[in-house]
Write a structure and sequence with these properties.
The complex is a heterodimer of chains A (41) and B (368).
Chain A: H1 3-36
Chain B: H1 2-10, H2 13-31, H3 36-50, H4 62-71, H5 75-87, H6 91-94, H7 100-105, H8 108-119, H9 125-132, H10 139-149, H11 154-166, H12 168-179, H13 182-185, H14 199-216, H15 221-236, H16 240-263, H17 268-271, H18 274-304, H19 323-335, H20 342-367
Helix pairs in contact in B: 2-3, 3-16, 4-16, 5-10, 5-15, 5-16, 8-9, 8-18, 9-10, 10-11, 10-20, 11-18, 12-18, 12-19, 14-15, 15-16, 15-20, 19-20
The chains are: A mainly alpha (41), B mainly alpha (368).
Amino acid sequence: MNEVMIETIRIMGIGMGTVFLVLMLFYLAVRGLQMLFPGNE
Amino acid sequence: MENLLEGLLSITWQQVVMILIGLLLIYLAIKKKYEPMLLLPMGFGAILANIPLSSAVGDGGFLTLLKEAGISTELFPILIFIAVGAMIDFSPLLKQPVMLFFGAAAQFGIFMAMFLAASTGAFDIKESASIGIIGAADGPTSIYAATRFAPNLLGPISVAAYSYMALVPMIQPPIIRALTTKKERQIRMDADYDAKVSKKVLILFPIVVTLIAGIIAPEGVGLVGALMFGNLIRESGVLERLSQAAQNELANLVTLVLGITIGSTMVASEFLKPTTLLILGIGLLAFVFDTAGGVLFAKLVNIFLKRKVNPMIGAAGISAFPMSARVVQKIAQEEDPTNFILMQAIGANVAGQIGSVIAGGVLLSLLG
């Protein structure tokens, strides 16, 4: 396997992982905001 | 007389083919209504750019000026993002934030397509990433990344991105059916239709998203920031006139020049290459892998859940809004006319709009 492919696989792993991480942080942020400011206020 | 015949005498077969491709795009836009706002101007731009000795392109040509001012500077996609942000209502997602995870899973196609593009050996890693972002199912993100990483591939990448977005109702159903059983497609999901989202949450959400995404992937903050700025204008409640201007005048004006400018990059010498066919093929596979990634992620989650989710929701996690959510609801009703999962599908679809921008930003940061 050449260097480009190894780098591509590395970026695939880090990239997909980071997307999940960021969206998980959004999820936690939304839950936090909803606890601070409930919808029925 | 010679001057008048100069154009006719210098036309090449490649230019004729490109003019025919331009006509095909216009036909698809008008007759089939495939993304007409983009494909029609793109088709006409392709014709203008491929007329022999065209004064629309080259030194002083208005299309070249537009390209240098709006595409090379990344200004047009950023302005489109402000407009899109002003159009998005995040409340279906904020009522069910768990849908964010489906918006992440359905970005799988971006990375698989990037891998496929790199494995052909025809593209370097940045070009492969630009091709992968066709799987974002999000035209402005594709244009933004291609401008940054592979300006030579901007034409075919844009054509693929917008064409496949229009073809979502044809691409997704066979993949969804192949990966789910009838019983799974009939799963019902409860929705709290009366749930309310606080105005404060709606206002704070775009700010928090910008801060988190900007800190983790600063190269992508242009994309995310523009999208969320547009949304903040919408939700602030004090800038109604600007919000309407972003949703209408700004969106219409930039769309008008964006399409024709991208079309002008489809010159024969750049477009008529075997790599264009590869890009179109890999772009289609990106949408297939997006759909498969979302559905399979939902099935994986179901292993751990007592109250199962309908795995078709995963397919709605792509950015093609609202086509993808409609596709999922249509299949659900074909299996069971009393099953309504549109609200959950819309939530996942909105999450996909965020997920695609984040994926684009992450790739820009990793390769920038």
